[in-house]
Amino acid sequence: ICAYFTIGFGIVVFLASAAGADWDYTQGGLTATAFVLGAFTSMLSGYLGMKVAVYSNVRTTISAQKAGWTACFNTAFRAGAVMGFALCGLGMIVLYIALVAFKGTYSTDWGRMTECITGYGLGGSCIAMFGRVGGGIYTKAADVGADLVGKVVHGIPEDDPRNPATIADNVGDNVGDVAGMGSDLFGSFAEATCAALVIGSASNIEDPWGALLFPVAVSAVGVFVCLIASFIATDILPVKKETDVEMALKTQLISTTFLMLPAVYVLASALLPDVLPINKVNGDNATIDMKPWMAFMCVGAGVVGGLIIGLITEYYTSHSYAPVRELADSCRTGAATNIIYGVALGYKSAVIPVVILSGVIYLSFGLLDLYGVALAAIGMLSNLATGLSIDVYGPVCDNAGGIAEMAELDPSVREKTDALDAAGNTTAAIGKGFAIGSAALVSLALFGAFVTRVKEKSDGVIFGNGVNMLEPLTFAFLIIGGMIPFWFAALTMKSVGLAAMEMVYEVERQFKEKPHLLDENPSERPDYDACIQISTKASLREMVAPGAMVIFTPLLTGTFFGVNAVCGLLVGSLIASVQLAISMSNSGGAWDNAKKYVERASPDSELQGKGSDVHKAAVVGDTVGDPFKDTSGPALNIVMKLMAVLSLVFADYFYSINDGTGVFK
């Protein structure tokens, strides 16, 4: 289905790009080619990730059964590393080959060349939309259905082989958490690089090739840094007991961050000239003389800012700290207080990350205008290989636990995989924090690239003195843009609810028609395929409306109301999406770990442990949080980025309609 979409929308990209360039079919063809390359690279990365995850799940279970903590952890971590390094390597090599090929066509017209390459980011982001939204609906429909009927109604574990939804739940972890997160972060990498290339290509030097490749080189050095740091977790400081797991994963993030800083400084000194004039986006033909240390500061701000956002996310979502323990305690008075506490925790958790993001933007914007913001986004994504390794580690451990439960292995195996999975839940939340922070910076950088492109196309007539947000049309669409994330979240949440209801009815039907399914040693086998079909059909059906909304909103706005309206739309959606994405993701992560904290409690304690009323309240919170943290929250990253990169790719087309004022001039 993604392939059909890519070919169909590729034709739209070709026609619109050619029309915007006075029917230059070469430009249209190259932009469409870059779009197809980005889309298929994203698909291939997700496919490889799922393939490796499926092979690694059972290996992790066997390691937990036969070997100690070190082998068990290393198996899951290395599975994630395959996805992380494959995605980064594929993304960079395809982008570099495309740049070299396009350079042969536009040997001196750097602006035209980088404009064509923006299709690469658009392709990656479109597939990320399907991976995140479709994958999120698939996995959460199964998860919510398995939890509600299995745990709450019948008191059996979600991974119990008697539960008809258990296979769909485990499959969904791979679809949503592996392929979805991979395509999301691939899109961020591609778009951040494209934004930096577009803004950087406007510099006033004769041959900016080395300077243009600086953003790609930062990502390339990041791969080697992540490769070196990966040995810390697996060999230098291996996991030997349960308490080492979370620290090992956190050490990965911290070590890659601090190893990146000197590497970037050396790279900036080697690749960039002593002075590189960068055109300011906001101002009439004004320039900034960029020095290598300025580029280093911008990238460094992104690297360190990403780490701080990750650690703040951990504080609010790990049961090692007070917020989640307070949330678990609120379950003693029922599900309602648990949900009230969880929503409040999510809102509160957005405060510090937003302040950090604002600080990174202020510093990088102040130094190098919006080119600095693009470099900060690339800095935040520079340890992408490690971030993805840690992200994929989570669902691998989750599925390993599911396999242990279904195969009825010794309870000690499940305890081991659960401990690995609990750490994986926290690190997955950290990964989502990184993804949201980088998406905000990427979106702002793409907005800058869009303004740069329109300004160049109009010879400074439009946006010559920057974007005026107090223009009536711009301000009106600023409000509309702020509404878009809420509309999107409503569509995706309702989709999960509808699919989960179908799943609940199907599981209940099977329990009624096959009453012996709930026996200790059932004589009948559940129909797992029926539940898998519900998740598959629901995800394909329900992802159409939110996907169409995000794709067509900027296209229709630019076509009918012009580029000023698009500016308002992009800024409004960015501001609202960041707050909503952080709060939803962290609420969901906290509810999940609060449930795990209750499950670890002894029956004699205040939290009463598994099977108690307190546990049932915690399960309800976790079930509500599932679409928060795995569907709507993370998918808002795509809303920010996809709308911005679409606007950039179609900038020339928008300008071609009544000089950028739209049909309703």
TrEMBL record:
NCBIfam families assigned: PRK00733.3-5, V_PPase
Membrane-topology descriptor: Multi-pass membrane protein
Main localization category: membrane
An example Gene Ontology CC term for this record: membrane
Localization, UniProt: Endomembrane system
Organism phylogeny: Eukaryota, Sar, Stramenopiles, Ochrophyta, Bolidophyceae
Keyword set, alphabetical order: Ion transport, Magnesium, Membrane, Signal, Translocase, Transmembrane, Transmembrane helix, Transport
Spans through the membrane: 30-54, 75-102, 212-233, 253-273, 293-317, 338-364, 370-390, 434-452, 472-493, 549-582, 635-655
Organism expressing this protein natively: Triparma laevis f. inornata
PANTHER family per UniProt: K(+)-INSENSITIVE PYROPHOSPHATE-ENERGIZED PROTON PUMP
Coiled-coil stretches: none
Enzyme class: translocase
EC number: 7.1.3.1
Range of residues in the leader sequence: 1-20
GO molecular function: diphosphate hydrolysis-driven proton transmembrane transporter activity; inorganic diphosphate phosphatase activity
UniProt-recorded name of the protein: H(+)-exporting diphosphatase
